[in-house]
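From the shared-data thread, chain only:
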Amino acid sequence: MNRFQIIPLILIFLNFSCVKNTEMLPEDDLSVEEKKWRSQNLEDYEFTLQISCFCVLEYTYPKRVVVKNNEVFQVNETPIEEINDPSIRTIDGYFSFIRETRKEKPDEEEITFDPEMGYPTTIFFDISYMIADEEIRYSISNLIPLK
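Structure, as tokens:
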């Protein structure tokens, strides 16, 4: 084999190696942050949730979410049983949501995490650039452990 035959083989090998590594990286980052979150051992906490979407204005207002025994307990002092909104989740639920949504291979995503506690602070997905107004952004802030 001469060098003109070897060079294309090396380039093909490097190309497949790079693709595989970049596909693994987002899940690795998610797993690292989820492990950091789980190390907090929090089952009771509250946080502010703001949803940005093309929807009614009231839906986008900040909501105070209270989680007890790792289940959503209330939103803005209203018991969760009176609210029919599957987008309000626990932090563990948002980690699952990220994983499930990634399976749809979105055209765009933006995920950021709290550097100390590891919970997601921004979750944004645009499933398809070809579909208007299906984008949604969750902003999570002011997480406070409850005693």
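The chain has one domain: 3-145.
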